[in-house]
């Protein structure tokens, strides 16, 4: 009977330790592998760019099920197998586009599972252009790109406890842009699309 009581007490303690309560705050850092491309109303024939992201985040809990999470991320986007046209002779060349942003998503975070260590999140993001170029001629393209990118972010992840106030983060997330990548685009709208797999560390305050 005494052993059973000790086991139940231990399980209860673990559940309490792993789930967060109202007013709790977590922060952390993560890095991730990006697959980015663009979508358009017309055929682009573009392929995915393999890249990465890195950043930090904070997560404030309103209850053990809901929190609001904000990120600050260096986000490599763009696409491969695009085209660039020489304005002097009209000749087109295949090239890859490298477009990097400082991205700030603000998302509602729903926590689920017995220990509330799984989560789904969704919300808007704003991206601020850092640099843009193509690889065929190494041309700087910042002047023809929109300086901001607004869209929707969503993801699913799990936090694995490794110590009392430390967890390992594993996450899949995606972003879909609503803003045209090009500043004065006369053709079909071109929007960013990015998926990533992230891993990182989460600290409890």
Automatic annotation (TrEMBL):
The lineage of its organism: Bacteria, Pseudomonadati, Bacteroidota, Sphingobacteriia, Sphingobacteriales. Residues 1-19 form the signal peptide. Residues 18-182 form the Outer membrane protein beta-barrel domain. Keywords: Signal. This is Outer membrane protein beta-barrel domain-containing protein. Pfam families: OMP_b-brl_2 (PF13568). It comes from the Bacteria. InterPro entries: Beta-barrel_OMP_2, OMP/PagP_B-barrel.
């Amino acid at each position: 009977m005494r052993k059973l009581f000790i086991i139940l007490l231990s399980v209860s303690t673990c559940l309490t330790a792993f789930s967060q309560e109202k007013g709790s705050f977590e922060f952390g850092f993560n890095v991730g592998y990006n697959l980015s491309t663009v979508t358009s109303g017309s055929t682009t024939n573009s392929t995915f760019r393999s890249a990465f992201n890195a950043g930090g985040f904070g997560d404030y809990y309103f209850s053990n099920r809901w929190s609001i999470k904000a990120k600050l991320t260096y986000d490599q986007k763009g696409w491969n197998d695009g085209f660039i046209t020489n304005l002097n002779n009209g000749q087109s060349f295949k090239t890859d586009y490298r477009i990097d942003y400082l991205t700030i998503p603000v998302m509602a975070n729903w926590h689920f599972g017995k220990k509330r260590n799984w989560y789904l999140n969704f919300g808007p993001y704003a991206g601020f252009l850092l640099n843009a170029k193509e690889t065929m001629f190494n041309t700087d393209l910042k002047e023809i790109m929109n300086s901001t990118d607004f869209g929707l972010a969503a993801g699913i992840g799990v936090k694995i406890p490794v110590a009392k106030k430390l967890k390992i983060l594993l996450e899949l997330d995606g972003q879909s842009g609503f803003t045209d990548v090009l500043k004065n685009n006369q053709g079909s709208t071109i929007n960013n699309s990015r998926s990533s797999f992230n891993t990182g560390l989460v600290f409890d305050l």
